[in-house]
Amino acid sequence: MISQILTAVGAMIFGVAVCAAYFLFSNKLLEIIFPAKEGGDVHRVAVNLRRRGIIRPWLFLGPAVSLLAIYLMYPVVATLILSFYGPDGNQFVGGANYVWAVNDNEFRRSIFNNILWLAVVPAACTFFGLVIAVMTDRIWWGNIAKAVIFMPMAISFVGASVIWKFIYEYRGGTDAQIGLLNAIVQLFGGTPQVWITIPFWNNFFLMIMLIWIQTGFAMVILSAALRGIPEETIEAAVIDGANGWQIFWKIMVPQVWGTIATVWTTITILVLKVFDIVLTMTNGQWDTMVLANLMFNWAFRGFDSGRSAVIALVIMIAVTPIMIWNIRRANAETKGH
Amino acid sequence: MKKLFLMTVAVAALTAGTALAADLKFQPGQDSKFNWKSFDDFKAAHGDLKGETLTIFGPWRGEDEALFTSVLNYFVEATGVNAKYSSSENYEQQIVIDTQAGSPPNVAILPQPGLLANLASKGYLTPLGDDLANWVKTNYGAGDSWVSYGTYKGKDGKEAFYAFPYKADLKSLVWYVPENFEEAGYKVPTTMEDLIKLSDQIVKDGGTPWCIGLGSGGATGWPATDWVEEMMLLMNSPQDYDHWVDNTLKFNDPKVVAAIEEFGKFAKNPKYVAGGVASVASTDFRDSPKGLFTVPPKCYMHKQASFIPSFFPEGTKLGQDVDFFYFPPFASHPELGKPVEGAGTLATITKDSKAARAFIQFLQTPIAQEIWMAQSGFLTPYKAVNTAAYANDTLRKEGEILTTATTFRFDGSDLMPGKIGAGSFWTGMVDFVGGKSAQDSADEIQKTWDSIK
Q1: Smallest Cα–Cα separation from B358: which of B24, B140, B106, B35?
Q2: Where is the chain membrane-spanning (chain A) (predicted)?
Q3: A280 touching B (Cβ < 8 Å)
């Protein structure tokens, strides 16, 4: 234990030292190659300084860019290549894996479920986050409420699954129901259900978990944005006789529109990667399969690197436009200011 | 000063030694039912391994992990090897990740020959040698079957013996509480027809005959595959079973569909299963036998393998509080005899080392089996062990079924390709219990199987 801690501390100190040394050394090298004193030749010095300015960012970003290339670009290319090969990655099969994907029931089911998740979760998180942010800014116990709503963010997906398993728990026959949801249903005279085994609707029961986890995130970001709205505009609206509803939709929402979009897209990307919740709750059974779990199953149960590569690419292709749009929008915003 | 330091080290080493010896559940040499000679011989042959490390990855968790560790302690005591055991809830995936990532354990112990065959074909396993295969053949009950379950094609396409069977499970068992049977006047059935008659009788008397639970986290559905395999063995020849497992007999063949439907007669009959059909798929298999022990009993019978007593309420005495009977064959199929379905864990070397080889040799010693036998939940087809070491008569009865078995068939789903046996088959059975027809479920599984050929 102690030796492990020492190793970790040592590694941290070493890592930081290497980084610092790299920056100092590369800067020094730049100074030597493009000196700031060239025997009084002011023009040359100016050229050198400008060259330094051009090269320095590349030098400083160099390690990060090359690491990204190794850990991001290489896997993407390798996955693309694998997707054209058979189960063990040795035999070229052309587009067979893609053909399989299009015709596979489970794959189609996963796409459908993923779309369902995409349609519901980001919208619900953003909506609840915004409403709660507006509400909690008005009441004295708003901060307490915020803290409570934010708390699920700190729980891991698997931990959340354990909690929600108890909420959806079902006991057969005449046993007393210990699940919260079934207890409520019984209170109102309904019959207890095995919630996570009801096809189609069980998707929504799983989604609720992610909404529960992510609403806090949306709330915090949106709350910060709402604080940024100038008091005057709201005051002016009040003086003009706007009601709460109008203030919300016509004053507040347009002013935080950029933040709403950011929150929405961030959660969208998260939803495309949803895996842990499905694995721990149903493992894709009862028609709850999503792409990430399907990929995992084909890779580690089916030993088929080709098919899992196809599924991985589909997830990546789905995420990419959202990322590009997000970056474009962020760029446009900084230019605008 | 230096002398004092050396002294302290010596004392520390000594106390460490005794502390280790104290970890041994049964003191060497003391109880004559154990084969201590095999322990001493092993110790004498492997004294040169001190200080080596050995990592072992296996499926045992919780109580089973403690039991396995109690055996492992003897290996540590004999060799001085620093052995570490680890496991994972999703061990089937973990081992694939570990081997593909290039950081496998030294020894992997897994209950799925299908998965091991896959690993062998990718070159992740080390052959154990023909000598060991011959040893298994002569020393194990139904030895040929066991050798074939450990023999796979390697990366070079050649067949070799890769996996040593250690610890067996017997599947064809129905658990019941003798007291409940006595009170209600029920008799242990010896034919499937009688078993169904008994179930009907229990329903008539206002009881519920069966507790069935298919839940098992990410592996939900597997207990149903055991039922179907059992029905396959009871309704078809062993050859049909073998062909089913390698898909020369299609999964949607009428024979297989009939077996699934036979399982449905139990699991999909609301009068037969405790908690109703809806609770079958969602009840955890570890919780479902608990219904046997409630007052009044929630159910009278529970079909599950020999490992299930690990999940019985604490203090349950096997053979007294609870007993088993053989899942009986159909009287209408006398030609099939009494087939036995089972399973087992197989030890393989995923990263070769001297300590790993020594560990496999350790598993061959009677003592490595008897230590676990004397506690609970362990059966072995190894004929040289002293059956007196079994903790109780129930285990001894099960063990004898294994050592004297002639027709033994391994759990079919564990032999099928991973995507079927640990994927579509599970999902198919969950869907079947959830309301799909046997034909549709079987068609769906066959479709996946066709797609991976």
Answers
A1: B106
A2: 6-25, 58-85, 115-135, 147-167, 204-226, 247-272, 308-327
A3: yes
